[in-house]
Fold each of these.
Amino acid sequence: MGALEGRKLTVMALLLAAAAAAGAGRVGAVGHFSVPVTGEAACAPEDVARSLSLLVQAREAERRGEVAGALSRYRAAVAADPRLADRKDPRFLGPSFERRLNEWIAGLKGGRIPAGTSALPDASYLFRRMYGGCG
Amino acid sequence: MIRRLFAYPEEAWALAVMGALFGVVAAALVLFGNPASSGLCASCFLVNVAGSIGLHARAAQSYLRPELMGIVLGAFFAAFSAREFRVSGGSSTLLHFVGGAFVLLGCEVFIGCPIKALLRTAGGGLAGLTGLAGLAGGVLLAVLFLRDGFALSSRRALPEPLGFAMPVAAFALLATAVYGAGQAQPGGTSHAPFAISLAAGLFFGAAGQRSRFCVTGSLRNAALLRDFREGAGTIAFLAAVLAFNLAVGAFNPTLSFEPGAHTDLPWAFMALAMVGFGATLIAGCPFRQLIRAASGDLDAVAAVAGMLLAAGLSVRIGIGSSPAGVTDAGKLAVLLGWVLFLSAAAFKRKAA
């Protein structure tokens, strides 16, 4: 640490800055940038329609007892319209969904619900989305 | 003892008591209704206020946070009564403005300021702990440059009325909130009752001004000056929140089930490392900048203005992360923040 001073430190800072600039250039070139829809609409109409379709599929999968399939579709629906996981929004999936989700999480963690490897990440996504954040 | 706490806050025990009180009040605000781990998060509060004054339009993140106005007014009253309200500025004001903006964007990519990183860690969040490690790394890297002569241009005294801009703005926003114009709309952000939030904010501001509570500042002083007094406050904050969470059953060690967090650990690390590095160069994380701004430091006012604009921009162009992960705009913001701060560190040294 003591040797890092003067010109060496300047060179290190410039090399790191150049690496960060190169990284920024790459993200700028290949990244996906889209302005999120906010305000009254909060979601693009096509996203709202897609989320409703996914919700129907999720509930059908749930009725068939396919927890993994249901969770994957609920996740996709919430990704399309985040208001579904906002407990203060009228479009919220509801306290009964919240209760079922917590039961599924407990079941998946305890191995009582057989499901694929994506079920727990899908459930944890819905959980993180539902509780917390800056709002 | 309370008088001694406020009159002589330089002793380690006093700073530790203050830090613990900070932690308990911040944790309690969550029980009263604030979002998880957001009893005290300067960057989240700035995003909420930015939304409430029209800088972005996402209802779920818009609320005229009484805590924020309380912090500014509490710090102002504390500074004024202790004769520490001194109006000054002109010390790399532009770097404060742009740097403040990038510090805020880094916080949004991580999802929380350094204080929220402590709160998230004390709740058992491994992503919070990863961010905290990044913050420490960023501060330690910045200390190398401070040791080697990094310094902002010297500050000069300015006419006193200029220093009232920040407290007056906070008071005006508070009056707006009291009259209901800025209250949360249906679907708006979660929050504790107004009076409790305001009282907590006034405490955070006054105690923060007296104790110089600052996560990055405490790390910097420990590494640069071998002065661990402020570190005692930070450790006490973490310990108090941890004890509180254990007592109320809110401690849950987890990576994937941390409320409101994402699991992109490398970017959580990188983002808060950039925040730690940048905040050390511009002398304060978002909370500290608010306290300095309320105490008459006009460069900090520039930093707060930069943070507020960045808060609006973060939501408008999708820089802020969500539980889905870090966006490409967020990654770009973190990398550009590193370019800015490393360039400043390279060229603003007397020894360089």
Amino acid sequence: MTTLSAAEIRGRRQWPLPKLADPTAPLLEVRDLKTHFRLERGWVRAVDGVSFSLADGEALGLAGESGCGKTTTALSLVRLLPSNGRIRGGSVELFGIDLVPKSERAMLRYRWREISIVFQGAMNALNPVTRVADQIAEPIRQRLGQSDKTSKRRAAELLDLVGIPRKRLGAYPHELSGGMRQRAMIAMALACDPAIVIGDEPTTALDVMVQAQILLLLEQLRRDLGLSLILITHDLSVIAETCDRVLVMYAGRVAEEGPVDRVFREPRHPYTQKLLGAFPNIHADRRTLEVIPGQPPDLVDPPVGCRFAARCPFVMPVCTEVDPPEVRLEDGVRVACHLFPPSGDAA
Amino acid sequence: MTAPTLPGPAALSLQPVSRQRFGFLRELLRRPSGLFGVIILAIFTLLALVPDLLVGPLQTAVTATGPRLGPPSIEFPLGTDELGRSILNLTVHATRISMVIGLLATFITVAIGAVLGIVSGYVGGRFDALLMRIADFFLVLPTFVLAIILTAIIRDAIGTGSREIGGIRLSLLVIVVVIGITSWSSAARIIRSQTLSLKERAFVDRARVIGASSSHIMRRHILPNVVNLIVANAVLTFAGAILTETTLSFVGLGDPFQPSWGQLLEAARSTGAPGLGAWWYFVPAGASVVLVVFAFTLLGNALDDILNPKLAGRR
Amino acid sequence: MSLRYLARRLMTAAITVFLIVVLNFVLFRMMPGSPERILLGRTPNVSGEVIQATRERWGLDKPLFPDQFVAYLASTVQGDLGFSFGGGSRGRPVTDVLLQRLGPTLLLFGLGEVLAIILGLALGAYSGWRRGGILDHVGNGLSLVLYSTPYFLLGMGLLIVFATGLGWFPTFGISTVGQSYAGPLDQLGDMAWHLALPLATVALGLVGQYSILMRSSIVETLSEDYVTTARAKGLTEGRVLRSHALPNALLPTVTLIAINLGYVVAGAITVEVVFNWPGLGTLTVNALSSRDYPVLQGVFLLLSVGVVLANLIADLMYGFLDPRVRT
């Protein structure tokens, strides 16, 4: 895959980059992100030192069991956290601008215009008492300062783009099917022509046929608009079909990360292997996470060493003593497991 | 994820209720609102239990010794009423009457609500639909006016006179019953919806499969699981019952021979205490009502939070 | 709004009113003791003629059903609710007595409700939005105290402070006794002066409940997914609240306020007693003390129908506010 610089992105964007943007920096660079939640009994280390990058036009899949921190990671990018959530370390650089130290007010500038989110539209992510078209037009008017007329027109175009018939323009969310609502949600995410679109389980809760249609639409939009995509899902087959790279998380940390075909063909981390059910050919059949015996550790007081150790079939004495370092292997796969020591010799 | 452990036969009668029955007390006392509620409850319970020890027997027009409508003094810390009786004496004795009426009315309200709620939810079908229609009807109705009329009619019809049952005058017992039959509907609705969700749970199915009768299931399986809800609801109902009794007494349905807080307030108003500036006549009884209702509302909300974790976080 | 929704609501309201009429009938005929005695209450010195007239009028010597019931239904529909037996209004048609008292009550409670709804919703929305803030704690505590205070007690408190103590407002009535007015404006001013305290009492009494309702509704709404969506859009907090949280939070509040009305209005009639306001509340208490059952029956019917109507209006408003019930 080719990596476009921010300068090249500028040519395609309808809206100018933020003033402080570094034209040579990568699109998104997350380093050692730590997002914790305050509870009465202490801080829950939901995301505890996660690093990754996203190149322009790339699609990255975030995978892992529920509660592993994948959604928190994505929402931390625009700091859309519950009131007890806090980013307690690391950096999130968009065009070289670190978003972590930004004030809440300054953060508004980056939400939706630079990073938008496709929530589960089939559920309750659309305001039930407002017309869908108005909800799509809202950020165009509010955030881009467009006139009422222009934003309505653009909303109509966007609905066209995601395949919602013109005559449904005045519809309320409850008048649309689950698939239609998800399409509308996607149209809404595209409203400000953002640099990055995050899909938070965009196909969950839809039936299989509709899921396929939505995935097809996302593929199409990616191709046509050159979207940069972060896709959160527990459905590995969705990542296999849609993404370039995959990041597997376990208990708030990166277990394994790399190109989809490498990771799915030859999973290195025992957790990834478990996730994939030890079947190398993921493209052949659709599967969701199979149940792995045992439970993820308590993230208020995580154990020393590898967090997967308690459930790992290959556990060694070192695993419960030392945190496994993240190692970049020759084929571009990054893995954090003592089976792959930093020397580079894969066991 | 662990595989669910299958319950043995003993678990069939024991149910998931066993979640630390008494742990919640500590939990309750840890919250400021819960602690406040418990303290107020303790104080007023003490007043209600031994009024004679604290302030002597209830004063009457005959035994009154003070000046008419005298302001607070050393001899009469809360002043006197228009007959020269000590307001402190009257208010402490009224505590007993108000609390007892509140308690009995709560018991009737919650008992009706629980029975109708459980049966309606469990039996379902037309019976349920009809009962809930009636509950809705009562919810919309100006129940207070209904209560006024019912109290008056029942008293006229049975001729209460000066009869007593268990030391409580019949006229006050009529109020108790009337509060019960006009305020059961919200308790019934809440308990019904909990019953509906319990009905779908596995342990009820198991009981049904092994041939338990409906009444057995309702008593032994549903009831223990809605007890928490009933307790929290009862505490809130008590607050409401005190308010209703106070208001009914205020419009003239109290009993001067067994004065409640509401009866004292009515006496204060008809004497013209507010117009005469005699604040001491109604402030003690009024403050008692507000304090008790406030404390019980806080307590009920705290209990609701603790006993029904589903609702936690909403407040 | 769909015709079916409208029809269903109208139907429910009609059935409720019918049930109220039936309840009224049952209350006074099926109680133990002779119906004459209950219908005439404990009114002293009732002449034999009056008893005879009552008996004939309601057909008390005929069977309960259908004769008595049909007679009762027919006269109720025609607005004939019988005659008052009470002190001041003895012998006058109940309907006349009620209508005469309706105006002052509507004025007091109409204004009080409007004030309380505006203040309560604003206060509740703000404290729910700033959950955990100082105003939330203070407002929440104050709301609960107001909720715990019987309306009449609040009235007595305001009366002793602002009328007896400070002398800013009159202590009773709707107008100054024996006053001659320079003009209609003068008269209106006098009425407003008399209205101030009872109005403040009603509004304060209700504000706590409405604020509690709105607060919990806003708190619940703020945790909805669509509010997260609105925040993700980079909208300011104010706009998230105004265009996403509030319109949704209002929905359950409208219904709850309407349902509460039956409880609230009836309890709040006691305010009239404190201030001697010549409305349905004082009428009720006077009728009660003279056991003027026809009037009590009439008040119950009137208030019930009023509450049912208010609920109907709330339902229609709901249909207007929420597109989901329109179709």
Amino acid sequence: MTPDELLKTLYDETLLGNAPAVLALTQQGLDLGLTPESLLFDSLIPSLEEVGARFERGDYFVPEMLIAGRAMSGALALLRPLLAETGVQTVGTFVMGTVKGDVHDIGKNLVNIMLEGAGFHVIDLGVQVPPERFVEAINEYKPDIVGFSAFLTTTMPMFKANINALEKAGIRDQVVVMVGGAPVTQEYADAVGADAYAADASQTVKKAKDLIQKKRAMVSA
Amino acid sequence: MVEVAAPVGEVPAGEVALIACGAIAQPCGRIVQQRGWSVDIHPLPPLLHNRPDLIAGEVEELALQLRPRYSSVAVAYADCGTYGALDSVCARLGLRRLAGLHCYDVFAGQDRLAAFFSEQPGTYVLTDFLVRSFARTVVAELGLDRYPELRDTYFGNYTRVVWLAQEPDAELAHLASKAADCLGLPLTTVDVGTTGLERELTTLLHPTAAPIGCIAKK
């Protein structure tokens, strides 16, 4: 298989969510001398973007998104240390978690995969994350952005509780706060004092990149 | 567009059209019949349960068809994951809907349901309809028939299944047990009966009527 053929096959298998094949092809690509960046940016990420586009068109549904995401995760686990070794600079650091009282993480996990694919260093705190854990993580990892996810109208109020905790800890200004989840709207995000809201995974990546650029431009100005 | 499950008749038999989620249309129908209400049930497809973003639009379309031919139209949906979109339609068309976030609230009562989630946030709720149709509405809809390896992706954070049993029998109990096994979770059965649905339907359709138990059933 030529490098071009491999990249094309890797793209196709990621689209199908064939995790064993994606992992094997990623390793095969490295053995062929392809760089981790090429495998990521010339095949895996475009494939996942196509998965997102098919989802938006209604050609793919949640199971297909998840299965493709899982396949991508397997490849990323292999590539992540290699990318770190090659000194590829991350776009930014993103601390993510589902708020206290909420166990839903499917959307959050898809966002994580897209963020990682786009070059972010993602620290996932999991589900049912209490405000004090977010504070600890921000102090520990110094992220550019912290993301709060909620799937329930009953747990959305934790956004405000988390933001209050950041204010109380004196770190609110150090980090951009993004919120998301099925019941969340821009109006709600504004009301609780979040910096940004994103409706889906691809929008999260786009907004996160924009916010980091703006933040860095302000710092350097 | 999702097709309306039941044809809309030219001449209504009842005075009130009740647009009902297909997942609760049957028990609604039984209550209407028992109480002798002049209400026609117009179910929407139960699989909208999995596509809440479509519910408000489907309700609006059907309500606009039905409104000219009935004295009033009511909606047997709770918010059901529309996050206010259904309320906007109801406000615009002057309709009323069932109280609560989901039909689970209607069956069990909002406080009781909140207590389940407070005890264990990882509570996965089933109703009689979901138990009976589990293979279609849960397994197939989530793609677990095609990708069984996704089970823990969906349910890994859940700690129990709570079956809100409305009209339990041995067959349903067996199916509920099978459903919980399929998800790898313990099953808690809570016998809620149909009193909650009856109470909420009474409030919806006959807000000034006597409470349940004070009206003779036909």
